[in-house]
Amino acid sequence: MIRLLLALTLLLAAAVPASAQTPFRSEVITVSARGPQGAPDIVFVPGLASTPAIWSREANRLDSRYRVHLVAIRGFGPLAAGTNADRALSGPAAQEIVRYVREQGLDRPAMVGHSLGGQIALRTAALAPTEIGRVMAVDSSPFFPALVDARTTVDDVRPLAELARTALLFLGDAALDAQGRQLGQNLGGAADAVFGTLGWQGGDRRVLAQGLYEVMTSDLRSSLPRITAPVTVVYGWSPSETSPRAQVDGLFRAGYRGLPSAPTYERIEGAQHMVMIDRPTAFAEAMDRFLAQSARASAASTAAP
What we know:
By secondary structure, the protein is an alpha/beta fold. The chain has twelve helices and seven strands.
């Protein structure tokens, strides 16, 4: 009888997928996965103060053909802050995504990140260049202040970033809204990438404040040469000369100049910061082109001797 029970236990264990045997646990992020096992993997990362809900339309559209992995940052939205309450945010999140990819056995997933999530995706690709298949950065820059003035340095923007972090930490979301408009004016009126239409879903004030600070002060341009995965940059654009969005083409290109291979640029007319929500049809078309490139690259890699 003991031998029979042992044999059944071993049989059942062998039948359970490894991902179910070892659920991913982290104090920094959570990840929910859906879609067919064995299908191509896509990892979605939300931006500042956002939850995976911002990816709902794309996740629902793709999860019959892809294995969709939705990252949530602890401290954004309803999630408790965990260890994010008292330390850096973006770097640890990228490290945990690398760990997730390895532990769950993802095969060179495509990564899609919005805003701060785009920076986290770039960090992930720099940390694990052979393990990430492609990166889509949605309205995200390696250094956001350079979208206002390419000559801006971290030292230039740090006093404003400290002010914004303090306002949010001690005065709350309403203060951020007012302070954000003022900072946008101070930065030349083109700071909607940080403060406008954020899709602000709240969360733990300490984590939101730290995330805001990192959005303003993180300069990832020196990390770009380590990214070997192809990169697609999607951003909102306006033909109106009176709109700051009319000027972003050259600024985005300058920001990503350090990549070993030139990225693909997808500008979406009429979109602001929340590109996937502002222009969902155009964004879906850009996503399909991005994924088709990924499929072709995977097929070529498989066919190579």
